[in-house]
Amino acid sequence: MKRLQPDRTVISVFILLVVLLLLLPIIPSLAQARRITGKVVTGTQAEPLQGVNVLIKGNSRKGAITNNLGEFSLEASPTDVLIVSFIGFKSKEVPVGSSTTLSVSLDDEVSLFNELVVTGTRNVGRTTLETPVPVDVISIKDIMGNLPQIDLAQMLAYVAPSFNAVRSQGGDLDSHVDPVQLRNMAPNQILVLINGKRRHTSALLITGTAVGSPSTSVDLMTIPAAAIDRVEILRDGAAAQYGSDAVAGVVNIILKKGTNKLTANLTGGGYQNSGGSAGDLTKAGKPDGFNYQFDANYGFKIGDRGFFNVSGQVTQRRPTLRPFVNDWEIYDKTYLSNLRTDKSGKPVITNPELINAQAAGNAPLTAALQTEDGLLTARGLSRSDFAVYAGMPGITMGSTFYNAGYEINPTTTIYSFGGASYKYLRGYSCYYRRPSQTDRFNFLLYPNGFRPQMTSNTSDISNTIGIRSRVGEFSVDFSNTYGSNSMRLGMVNTMNASYGSNSPVNMYLGTHEFTQNSTNLDFSRYFKDIMSGLNIAFGAEMRVENYKIMRGQDESYTYGDAGTLTVAQSGLLVGPDGKPLQDASSQPIVDAKGNPVQVTAGQQVVVKSLSSNCQCFAGFGPKNERNEYRTTMAAYLDAELELTRKFLVAGAVRFENYSDFGGVSIGKLAARYLLTKTLTIRGSIATGFRAPSLQELNYTHTATAFVPDANGIPQPLDVTTYPTNSTAARVLGIRGLQQENSRTYGLGLTYQPLPGFEVTLDAYQIDVDNRIFRTSYFNASEVGNNYNEVIGGGEAQFFVNGANVRSRGLEAVGNYTHNMGRNRSLTFSLATIFSKNTILTRKTLNLNVANLTPDQVVEKYLSRDVIGQFETGTPRTKLIGSVMYHVNKFDLMLRGTYFGSVTERSISTDDKGNYYDQSFAPQTVFDLSVGYALSNSLKLSIGGSNILDQYPEMLRSENRGFYLYSNNQQGSNGAYYYGRLTLNL
């Protein structure tokens, strides 16, 4: 593959940072006759605070700043009073007295988006209003008791407007992991950290995302919210600081460290299931989607120097069913009239009720039973029994996480954190197989057809162990992080039609596994006497990744002989009645003249072209098996220099080498300037990259797609996704995947007109070259050139670097807290994003296609519906406004979420060439939570999400396949109501 060349701007930044490091003056000795030493920590969890101002009252020129261990040293007299202050904490006055060693604890002054930040800066003494790039700090421990949502991804989606976690209500495996997004970019363009260490992704490659491109994603459901102190969302390109994937930004999950405190939550809830306003196309059902979750957190002290904090969570979620009751054919004429035969020509009785009516001489009943409605009535069925089921899957999950640390001595701490989870998921993501679909039907197994369901058993484990210490004047952090995600895939209520009645009905499809091991060595040092402060950090990383696909059981991917006849003796291909044998469509098998076909003894003839593989989703076979590795080496240099107290500049460069993609160098520059004490401007420019994941490079599978026929009824079509290093790709002219290169520009301001009132406003532009998309389908007749010898009778599609794209947006966050006295407070929050995605350039190749025009090739390479999904398939505008009121034992939260309009583009047209495009009006949903403290340790909360039961607009009739409603705004689950008990001891 093409080796990347270093960017000149990056080299210039690197040289500048090296010069700064080499020119650092030697810090003069501050030894004085009388010295005071001390340590400053947080009041809640006793964490050391770096960058705290310690001044002598009445003499602002004499003071100190705490180091990374929270330590300070200065000259003072016994009569002096120290003023200890830090933004985000309440200032404290400490008399010196006769003490020479002081310990100071600062209490939080917390608001939702204004806390200490460790993401995006390696100087940990900054708040959200001081950072040169936008960072949202969300205190999960404080808000989770007041939110209807119970898992982390959905909590963040309804608090931070730039963050999305679109829940698929179908689409094969796409509902098995909620892909997380930032700034309407793809899920694999966001980097997730835990305590600053890279988190592994799920083994699953999500083929259908909200922005139209295949993607991997971290499965945030495997991390219990009870284990989390806060989440920091860096909304800026940060690949130069953290490596590949941090194109749109970074989500850093900070785990709890508290001890001697038990917190627990018991939550139960369910969906109203009103059915919306679709009339006869759906129906109001009983409340469904009931979920129950219990989580708990407790911390133990390890002597006087350490802690061990552990969390656990057990979740049970029932599925939600949102049926689409359609008018598609259920029983065809051959079924109703008993005209079907097996491969030997013997009759198959599919309508025994008709035989009985005929034998009884009941003419009216006989006539009725030869109609679809008549047979449904006789069997006690209705069309709703054959509906397509969309909805949320059923989930059973248990998870545990821990966070631990131990101070060996004042300068050295060992730490470790990690967790394990198990998740069983069973989803409705497959079309109902109707008896009229003769190539995937068996009367003995499923006389009225069947609805396959996909399952997954996911095991996820992770562990980090490290040590923080000092080498001379530098802080050192050495760590190793291991993570593994394994998904065992299955199908229930299914069959392989080509095996006939001998087919298993529950199948193991195969296992996907992704493993990642990262070793990091980081150095940092803060120079308080360089101008107004300089922080230097540098380090290295080695990362090893492994992706496996393991085969399933034979029947899940092979072709049986239920439709194949071995000729006993030479002659004509006829049945016992002397008539030609019938194919799967009950049509006689004849030659060009209409006569029975001549066959020879021992010849194998496919009489019934029965569908092979497991229905809905084929198993992974030997041709799909993979065991691929990648090694990555990286080094970075990061610096933040406060030229003055008002002016901060920051820069970073990173060199990274991939074993399969070669080397890359990227950089970042950022700055922040305080115009006044309350108004700050900030900006950044960065280059970035994202190497294709091992899943994107190696995923291969055959699935059943459904394409509408001339009557708008979806018909099954077997489609294989081939990797770009396959014969199918090379023959067609598809090239190997290249890395995505990005450029990010940001400009913003922060404003704090009065205490408790903060506003941030940030504009951004992200350009990504070589964005990976998936092509449309290519079949052998279109390609020509004997392509059928390569792919057989199915269709082929590929992952390609389909386009250069651009994302632009404007983000605003405002919070105001008003303390009304007498244990009353009122907090207002308003946050929004206005965004726009654009395809700048299609990157179509000259493919080896014989029977398609150049325009048709362009459309298949990057199709119109995929472009539409990226540009207009998600709301360009999302606004979240909330009010929280607290008085004595009561608290109330009311939140409104506005989803902007969405337009879905189609590739199908009417007879006049008009596309079946559809625009969906904006939607607003409201969440409500009311809490009451039953005692000092027990609280009851009740409320709901989408309490007004808003459903999105229905899809136009031509676009109704699996879904009846659009799923790109709030989804079609409707109103959800819950109750929760919270315990604090």
Description:
Helices cover about 10% and strands about 45% of the residues. With about 1000 residues, it is mainly beta. The longest helix has 15 residues, at about 10-20. The protein is elongated, with a radius of gyration of 32 Å. The protein has a 22-stranded antiparallel β-barrel.
Quick structural summary:
The chain is built from 14 helices and 49 strands.
- Structural category: mainly beta
So what's the overall shape? elongated
Characterize the largest beta sheet: strand count, sense, and whether it forms a barrel: 22 strands, antiparallel, barrel
What's the mean pLDDT score? 88
Number of helices: 14
Q: Based on DSSP secondary structure assignment, what is the total number of beta strands? A: 49
Tell me the helix content.
Answer: under 10%
Instruction: Please report which band the strand proportion falls in: under 5%, 5-15%, 15-25%, 25-35%, 35-45% or over 45%.
Output: 35-45%
Intertermini distance: 58 Å
Low-confidence parts lasting 5 or more residues at pLDDT below 50? 1-6, 13-33, 109-116
Q: For the CA atoms, what is the radius of gyration?
A: 32 Å
Blueprint of the fold:
Elements lengths: L7 H15 L12 E8 L10 E4 L2 E7 L5 E5 L5 E5 L6 E4 L5 E6 L9 E2 L8 E2 L7 E4 L1 H4 L8 H6 L5 E3 L14 E3 L7 E5 L2 E2 L29 E7 L4 H4 L6 E7 L6 E10 L16 E15 L3 E12 L4 E3 L8 H4 L15 H9 L2 H7 L2 H7 L9 E3 L3 E16 L2 E16 L25 E19 L2 E19 L14 E21 L6 E18 L12 E3 L4 E2 L25 E2 L4 E3 L19 E17 L4 E12 L3 E13 L4 E12 L3 H5 L2 E8 L5 E9 L4 H6 L7 E15 L2 E18 L3 E2 H4 L4 H4 L3 E25 L4 E19 L11 H8 L2 H9 L4 E11 L2 E10 L2 E3 L13 E3 L2 E11 L4 E8 L30 E9 L1
Helix pairs in contact: 6-7, 7-8
